[in-house]
Amino acid sequence: MKFTSGILFIILFSLFSSPALYSQSGSILRFIIQEESGQPIVSANVLLFEGEEEDYTDYGVTNRDGFVEFRGLKAGRYRIQISYIGFKTFEEYYEIGQGETDIHRIAMEESIGELQDLEIVEKGAKTGMAGITRIRAEDISRIPSASLEGDLMAYIETMPGVVSTGDQGGDLYIRGGTPSQNLVLVDNIPLVKPFHISNLFSAFPEKAVNNVSVMAGGFDNSYMNSTSAVIDVNLKTGNLQKFSGSASLSPYMSTIFIETPVRKGLSSLFVSGRASTINQFSGYLGSDEKDMQFYDIISRYTLQGKKFNCSLSAIYTEDEGRINTSRNTRLGWTNTGAGIRCFGFDEMFDHPFEVSLGYSGFSNTEGSDSRIERNSRVDQGYLRVDMQEEVANLTFDYGVNVWYQSFSGQANELFTSFDEGIEGISAIIQLYLKTKWQVTPRLILEPGAGTQITLNYSSGLEPRLRVQYNPFNNNRTEFSIATGLYSQTLEGITDPRDAGSTFTLYSPTGYNDPLQKAFHSIFSWRNRFGRNWTTNMEVYYKKHTNIPVPRWSQTVGLETETVRAEGNTYGADFRLEYDNGPVFWYVGYGFGEVEYTAEGSELGRWLGEDLQSYHPGHDQRHKVNTLINYRFKGFDLSFNWEFGSGFPYTQIYATDLLLDVPYDEPTKTPGLGAAYYDKPYGKRLPVYHRLDVSLKRYFDLSTSVRLGSEIGAINAYNQDNIFYVDIVEYEVVNQTGMLPYISLSVSFN
User: What is the chain's mean pLDDT, rounded?
Assistant: First the structure.
């Protein structure tokens, strides 16, 4: 294992020290494409024409910085054509000399009319690429979310293959993976749980987000230390030209957003703040009483130089409350993060590069109103460098990430493996190398490899491969495949017997314990029909090994042992979209099956039999979502309906109080609560379904002031959906009933 990691290190060192880093081969045209406000335009199509030729010479798609480049050009005159939905097509001529590198910033002008059909397949990542979904702020705005601002969580929960076991707790399961197996990045800052205790909201409102990539599996080697999924959030750039802001109020959330240039045209700042109003408004109009509160603050300072883009991002979130209001168990967690990211494209470098560094901290607690009984904390620091080099006409992306993690926690007998608490550190060096090889005009291969090295162990080589095949050499049909090996050093352990708690104990992989690893395999087919229809279908398989899971016992909430299990997940996702501007319609269906196996682990100790496998609590077989968004006469009407098959749960035969005789006296000590379970997850809850509706309208009070209003309802027909059965309080806990709401906002510029 260490030998293969060493080989990769030598290759990367050779690339870093290559003198070609500072040399050029041919001329280079580089473009930064953005909106007039300075916001980068992601995934814009860019065509390069030589002189007055009608057929394009080369093409590209802008990355998250709005950057695209054309290399190896002859001296001469070139024409650039840029197109993106919602903007006027841009055309311009550029002269370039021999061996020169020219850099240009282009501001696209918004267009009211419709964009013509795009001529080519985007060179970069597409919505239909295997395992990857690209999300824009406009997509988020379509989903009803009990607030005038859309929220990322509301959108992600509509995706096939994404499961949340209830509408509270802030946990996401993506294609069989657990929340601790997901990696969430915000401008490269790793966050553990940036989702709120109400699953209607994350820490990412529509106005703070530029674009998001949800990678449900098969992601490339630039993303390490996750065995399930990656959510990569890129924050927006504050307006470089003018000051603007907004504020809103709803029965669930109050918000404020401000953006302003610091130096006009050069630097900007935005600040987004939100606080829950659930406790103040819950119980109105017959809605359920809630006991939860949360808030989040996000800020980003952006500096756009002629030859670089730099940003300083910061985020803080805090959640606290009770999932079951009749139970004296309070949960809480916080996220803190700050980081600097710089993207450089100076002509002295043959290729662009990226450097980022920062810190994040996470803590979560569980206890009663009077004291905290359990706690866990993770602190992380990182320094990351990503670069490119050209070898044998292939462009290689490579990089190194130095990642430091510190862990502390106390479970107070919840897990016997951690009776003395957790205190530990982990220093990780991550290396990766990948390339893109266009074998034919229709076939592209993207192989890569990576490794993670610590003082105690090495993950070995993690080879990965992505394949794109365009059978008709157009933008209508595409097949893609993604496969590879994955590992992670962070472990999150929960007690699944108690669905009323999301407390997670985080720790590094023990010295004598094997790393969590996974194998992913995805096949995707995307097809576009006419101008308005798009369909996408994926089939996938994931195999996880060395998952830490609790061994169940009769005693509720005390002395839970952990064992290692193997998880197998397979399924299929289908998505159909219709979009003609005023009308957007989407339907998605997901099928999946998750099974855990732990041979010889005595999982069924209390049953008196050898239990080797079971379907965990997030094994949802069927999920259907449909969304209709209609914009007419200034109104914005949305319907979102979700159906899900029942989750597994464990049936209880009886409960009792256990005494330690002769030391416990029945007249003085009631004893410890004990539950007598059937086989784990042997039964299933009833099906789940919910309809959310909203109607928005904006009114221009003046040229600079706009009033927004929204009326809607979450769970509009007040369906009783079971969340879980609380064996401590002996009651059925339902998800949120009908929640009607009225939201108001005011914005200015």
Answer: 86
